[in-house]
Amino acid sequence: MIRGGGHDHVHPHAGENPERPLYGVIALTGTVFFVELAGGWWTGSLALIADAAHMAVDLLGLSLTLFAAMLARMPADPKRTYGYRRVEVLAALGNAIALMVATGFLMREAWARFTFPTTIAAKPMIGVALVGLICNLVSAAMLWKSSRTNINMRGALMHVLSDGAGSVGAVFAGFVILKTRWYQADAIVTVMICGGIVLTAFWLLRDSVHILLEGAPPHLDLEEIRAALAVIPGVTEVHDLHLWSLTQGQEAMSGHLVLAKERDHAEALRAGKAVLADRFGISHVTLQIETDAQA
Predict the structure, then answer these.
(1) Cβ–Cβ contacts within 10 Å for residue 107, how many?
(2) What distance in Å separates the CA atoms of residue 112 and residue 57, rounded to the nearest whole number?
(3) What is the DSSP string of 233-283?
(4) Whether CATH 3.30.70.1350 fits 216-291
(5) Which terminal residue of the chain, N or C, has fewer Cβ atoms less than 10 Å from its own Cβ?
(6) What are the tens digits of pLDDT across the range 87-137?
(7) Annotated domain spans of the chain
């Protein structure tokens, strides 16, 4: 029989609005998409067209990110007792898959362009790529703060940074073509852009799947938590510990504390929750109390 229990749930403040920077980022990304698409057609640069295609995927991904962030702020209800925070993780997973799919198209076009190179207007190509790079840097600065604690925003930042890398590559290819007339540089840079996209998408996919599988947050050590709870006065055993993330930055934990018979249950619960909150930053906690006779 359960002799005692405790839980403490902390939810995001109603005033928090981490998706606000996304409005500006989406506007900038849409502008760069049209500029690079037109510039790629005008100059004949596959690298610009590749980056424009990447931008199109990013527009979809960023829009999904915005929708997920808005949905995640909806309150919990009887059917979804944790609320909608995990929608952010699903959006991040979708963004990662979209990025990987986009690279398949770009790699195919790069191979065709390398085999059959075409003339490229290097100076306009460099100018268009520089405009894209500036917009990407502004977007990254807007997303940086919220991306550090939110996997959904981190997915958006990954999109923007990979776009920026594409713009840098296009600038480099433009200078190579301008100096040497070696037009295959455009295709080679496109392949390098794809490599960066795949790498960032893999990181995002890995982290998203880890959260969806309810894996322990990588910055927390379950055995260290067990040891910290075990030294609370009156605790004789700690077992059935489970540690997971609802979404990035919102960890949850449950476990059983076995107490000596004379130990006050309420006091032990307060001590346990204080250790978890102060030392490990875990505020969403459910602890079940047992006595030595029950364990």
Answers:
(1) 18
(2) 21
(3) TTEEEEEEEEEEEEETTEEEEEEEEEE-TTS-HHHHHHHHHHHHHHHH---
(4) yes
(5) N
(6) 878 887 887 887 788 788 778 878 877 888 777 888 888 888 898 889 889
(7) 20-212, 216-291
CATH 3.40.50.1220, applies to 20-212: no
Alpha-carbon distances of 22 from 110, 136, 204, 248, rounded to whole Å: 31, 13, 18, 18
Instruction: Please report the DSSP string for 246-259 in residue order.
Output: EETTEEEEEEEEEE
Residue type, 159: H
pTM listed for this prediction: 0.69
Q: Name the token pair of 51.
A: 């980056």
What secondary structure letter does DSSP report for 152? H
Contact 214, 86 (CB under 8 A): no
CA–CA separation, 90 and 97 (whole Å):
11
> pLDDT tens digits, residue range 181-200?
888 888 888 788 788 778 87
Question: Strand, helix or coil at 209?
Answer: helix
